[in-house]
Amino acid sequence: MDQARPKSRAVRGATRNDESRRFNLPQNEADGDWLDDRGLIDGAPPPLRTTVTVERPRTIINRNKSPDIPFDRSINPYRGCEHGCIYCFARPSHAFHDLSPGLDFETKLFAKPDAAELLRAELAKRNYVCQPMAMGTNTDPYQPIEREWRVTRQVIEVLAACDHPLFITTKSDRVTRDLDLLVPMAAKGLAAVAISVTSLVPRIAMTIEPRAPHPVRRLMAVRRLADAGVPVYVNMAPVIPAITDSEVEAIVEQAAGAGARGVSFIPVRLPWEVAPLFRAWLDEHFPDRAGKVMSIIRSLRGGRDNDPDFHSRMRGQGPWAELLRTRFLLARRRYGIDRNGEKMRLRTDLFRPPAGPQGELF
């Protein structure tokens, strides 16, 4: 008799909670709540609740020198992300808390409520040189917990008061909540937004990004931002071979219709622990094409699951990558957003450091 297939937990991305690379921190234990033992009662996996822990870093601006990333500084209001995107390259960062890049990454979150105050102090330093700040480059600044914590909004308030340029990447329509801040910044050439749209098919979207907003809501956010005068772009990031690549032309068309100034893409990346999680996810949700998906990914990545090299990691290599680039080029031309020569530029000359010895703005 065949063994019954284990029941999957609903509305989460990862299918398991793999061991992380350990950094010699204390082991984490279950909190002992009765929900942890639900499986002993009815045989179903226990529901995973989202928990938020306060993190108090000493600094809030992250610096990078990567030659294939168009910014040198960023702010991450949160660690971990409840959207649960299976492909998220930030998952391995949870190892620094000795937590799993799997389900822990989606359910054990960290918020930085001191972010705005730390930012004021850093912007007030005499040697600070203004360059555009990026948000959403690691985990989403508008994930569901932003509704209560509002750390992202507090950071934007500081940047707006200083006339500091800002570029936001998100897959949430919650960004439109902050139009009152972003519209005046955009009018000065200080703000732009990129919204990720990976699939227009609800069943696929909810599988790869289970707690992210519906793609229609994201496109509506593109329209609202564009109508309000905020420069907005659409990222098809990532493109997953044999699952979402058939939607390239449709996404470009919808983005153009919503008022996006440009559309970009990145082939799926599978660094560190993301690769085994992604493989397990394929086996669970797309067993009929799992082998094909991984075969194309390896062809994109020089025969490996992942290519960590600068530049090629963002573009991919080989015939499949070249075909993808050609399709995007032709689609952008067809729908009138072939603006590769029009690079996004944000002003830095308006920056004013926070006033006062402690950098107080208000």
Describe the structure.
Helices cover 33% and strands 12% of the residues. It is of the alpha/beta class and 362 residues long. The protein has one domain: Aldolase class I (TIM Barrel, Alpha-Beta Barrel). The chain has a 7-stranded mixed sheet with strand order 2-3-6-7-8-9-10. It has a 3-stranded mixed sheet with strand order 1-5-4. Helix 3 (115-123) packs parallel to helix 5 (151-161) and helix 8 (215-227) packs parallel to helix 9.
Strand composition percent: 5-15%
The value of Rg in angstroms is 21 Å
The CATH architecture is Alpha-Beta Barrel
Write out the strand line-up for the largest beta sheet, numbering strands in chain order.
Answer: 2-3-6-7-8-9-10
Major pleated sheet? 7 strands, mixed
CATH topology: TIM Barrel
Helix content, binned percent = 25-40%
Q: Identify low-pLDDT runs.
A: 1-10, 23-41
Number of helices: 13
SS content category: alpha/beta
Oligomer state equals: single chain
Number of strands: 10
N-to-C CA distance: 70 Å
Average pLDDT level: 88
H and E order:
HEEEEHEHEHHEHEHHEHEHHHH
Shape: globular
The first-level CATH class is given as Alpha Beta
Count of discrete domains: 1
CATH homologous superfamily identity: Aldolase class I
